[in-house]
Amino acid sequence: MTVKPAEPQASEPFSWPVRVYYEDTDAGGVVFYANYLRFMERARSEWLRALGFEQPRLAAEHGVLFVVRAVQIEYLKPSRFNDSLQVTVEVVNVGASRIRFQQRVIREEEGAMMQELVTAAVDVVCVTTDGFRPSRVPRELREKMNITTEITE
Q1: Is the dihedral of CA 35, 69, 74, 45 positive or negative?
Q2: By the 8 A CB rule, do 12 and 23 touch?
Q3: Which of 16, 42, 76, 103 is most buried, with most CB under 10 Å away?
């Protein structure tokens, strides 16, 4: 099954569906805490793809990669095997070489109530492919992000 989300808009967070598999859980039957980082990584990759950018293309054409610099995460409620989750991606701030995201992992409860399970502030840095030195976020990506937050240096 191929899921093709709409192009992200600045006014609403991008959302990516994730199903919890048995392999994602620990001995207690809940999602192992580090796996939420994997879910968030997937959502950021899909957000980038929805904007029209593939990571290999950014590396080949612009000579840059994105690496995680910092994560501040809060685990609010557990998730279990077979849960259907939504992982959101929202651009909070863009610097010359840094993008700060707010990410959430949400589970839909009975009655269409959404329950926030995990929240995180994630800083990624744009670096060169050859030396991993900081590099400016490519202009065409900045333009496609359509952000409403102020660009900081």
Answers
A1: negative
A2: no
A3: 103
Looking at 24, 26, 83, 123, which residue is catalytic?
A: 26
User: Average of pLDDT values for 127-134?
Assistant: 96
The one-character DSSP state at 149 is S
42's enclosing H/E stretch is helix 35-50
Tokens 């660009």 sit on residue:
151
**Domains with residue ranges and CATH for the chain:** 14-145 (3.10.129.10)
Give catalytic status of residue 130 as yes or no.
no
What average pLDDT does the structure give for the chain?
89
SS (H, E, C) 69-128: EEEEEEECCCCECCCEEEEEEEEEEECCCEEEEEEEEEEECHHHCEEEEEEEEEEEEEEE
